[in-house]
Amino acid sequence: MKRVVKIGGRAQSSADLAERIATAWRESPGSLCVVHGGGDRISEFQRRVGLEPSFVDGRRVTTRADMEIVRMVLSGLVNKELVAAFAAAGVPGVGISGEDAAMITATPIDATGLGRAGKPVAVRSDLIELLLDNGYMPVISPLAAEDGPTGEALNVNADDAAAAIAIALVASELLLIADVEGVLDESGKRIASLDQSDAGELIQNGVINRGMRAKLEAGFAALAGGVGRVRISTLEGMTDSTSGTLLTFAQSLIT
User: Fold this and answer.
1) Which of 62, 63, 101, 167 holds its CA 20 to 30 A away from the CA of 1?
2) With pLDDT > 70 as the criterion, what percentage of the chain qualifies?
């Protein structure tokens, strides 16, 4: 049974991250795959070279010049920092990118408006499974090769990449780590279980922000693609199966 965990935001720089990953790995070695983001670091490096980050509906506009920074930061810096932290905690992580062996292929979402931002169309899971089968934990940077003869790099939202990977692995669970304890209702209270219809209402009413909306879209896509279970949670969800918001095709419950 394989489990895909997407980390990002404040959780990615948390002092607790490596040990929580290590605990989950020790409980079920050979079954955990980590997908990471790094948007804040990308923005930081863009500003260092005089570029201002730009977003449309929560998605990063990625020019060809930006793409060089995205590649450098995600695959060359953030990925290797995480691998080193996991290794120090006793986890044999191996850092790879969705570009490696064209593992993730994608198409541009909107070449005019978003540039080199892409949406996954296929995942070749054999490289991930090879690592898992041999006792290594894949740590994946969410870049992709463009579907087609050029194979140019595309920047993929990490939630979308994690969902596509979870579908390809027929994962038992996709866990999307957030900076909040799950999806929150109008009063700021955690929603324990949420179906797609209720999620749509929360989005329409402006209760859900753009970052959480991306997680919900990815999460429901993963469920539709055959992933056994999808949750949105803080880091506590790594070792507490009851924390966070469970996405379902049933009626939602508010705790």
Assistant:
1) 101
2) 97
